[in-house]
Amino acid sequence: MGAVCRGGPEGAVYGGRMSDPTSLPSFPPPPDEHPLRGRVLDALIDEGGQPVLDDDGDVVVVVNDQRMFVRCADGQVPMMRVFGQWRIGDTVPADPLTRLKVAGDLTTRMNLVKVAVHDDVLFVAIDVLVTPEMPLPAVLNSCFAAILNSVRVWHENAGGGGECGPESSGGPENVGGGGSEG
After folding, report:
1. Is the model's pTM score more than 0.85?
2. Which residues are CB-neighbours of 32 under 8 A, at least 6 positions away?
3. Which residue(s) pair with 13 in the sheet?
4. How far apart are CA 124 and CA 146, in angstroms?
5. Residue 177 to residue 169: CA distance in whole angstroms
């Protein structure tokens, strides 16, 4: 063991393990700045996730090996959009009308889920009004499950077969966020 640091906290050891000084901790924003985003970050961390913020200010977290996004809008009634984007693989027929029809059918059939296709990218989102007493971990987990299920059903119904996800060849490839205005 090394010598005890003078003037440092009691029990501090000189020469002990040190964290990487170039990596800064990722603290949530102060409560008065983006309060909903701070709650979302806290909820995801409490559930064992490792969320980060992207260049658009969206919260990004990996769920079942898929990158998911949460866009927060603070206001009189805070809202969040939980979404994911996937590049459509070669196993799905290239007919744009079929792809759009399946997206429209899913949007109509599934509660809360919106499905769209644009430039060979499948976009699935759920918009949620957030109240102060809302159990965010449960709501976020439900949204993630519904979105991933919608991707699977879209892929099957669009003619891509039963396999989809990062482990299947030709299935939808998860792509980065941003640009999902609305």
Report:
1. no
2. none
3. 4
4. 9
5. 22
